[in-house]
């Protein structure tokens, strides 16, 4: 039987909205990541049989099947196909799942799963031309679809999380990200512009703050409720970035002289309450653990996308998880969350983290709008 393994995983450093990549089109950013992936893997791009790309806001420069456009921009042979998908914040992770499933099924020997998002050049909701009011009124009459920020507030209410809890967690995310800034072997230094408009190479995630002032964080106004607890400081940063993961059939890769770095123990996607919407991470985690035959105690590294601090803290309370294992190098509150890229970027980051620390098993789980979640468990080889 075919077995899909991860052979290489890379991401660009993430840039702030209006930051280093403000003049870089998203198709060019993804092409850069694809070329970096192939260079590091030492694989001829002609061997890739599909490129699956996550991109959330598929409009403007991110429309017209950005995956295929980036493959052509990267100079891959025209015979290499590509498809773009939108599972919202889980898009990049889902792209890896689909690539791995194609390899497991024997449909491909090598496939790429990745993602891209330029939230600077293609703002959120530009694909629907506005907010939820643009959705079908019949749907809105059946389902209470609310802003994710309000969902994050309701999660804080349900799990009795205070503003101080969220701010303290967020400051720790920055601290961990700053402390690990030079450990990210998955990063592809990428060209951009500095604040003065001069070309430079971005080698780190632009949103990380070396120092966090508790007073300044506490002074931030609530973003979604007048007396709420969710602020710009305890939510993910709006960012630009791209990521790509090369998946291959294990025996074929070995025969080609490539080194399998990890195998999949579980790949899941779940649906959950579309109003609370962000806590699908709970059933996704349970399903992934059940499929893998593992317990939480078996895991060495846990990546929970920090869309909002309340999501991660609620997850930790439910599972009584060891905080030291959760987002050990910080998360999206510090390094940013380029929507379509984050799922693949976190996989690359988690694999680099497992290799850096000698860990074996890692769980990645992501909350998704409209009440979904994706989860992956990998085993480092």
UniProtKB/TrEMBL annotation:
It comes from Deinococcus phoenicis. Belongs to the thiolase-like superfamily. Thiolase family. One of its GO terms (molecular function) is acyltransferase activity, transferring groups other than amino-acyl groups. The keyword Plastid does not apply. The keyword S-adenosyl-L-methionine does not apply. InterPro entries: Thiolase, Thiolase-like, Thiolase_C, Thiolase_CS, Thiolase_N. PANTHER family: ACETYL-COA C-ACYLTRANSFERASE (PTHR43365:SF1), BLR7806 PROTEIN (PTHR43365). The active site is at 89 (acyl-thioester intermediate), 337 (proton acceptor), 367 (proton acceptor). It holds the Pfam family Thiolase_N. This is Acetyl-CoA acetyltransferase. Residues 259-380 form the Thiolase C-terminal domain. Keywords: Acyltransferase, Transferase.
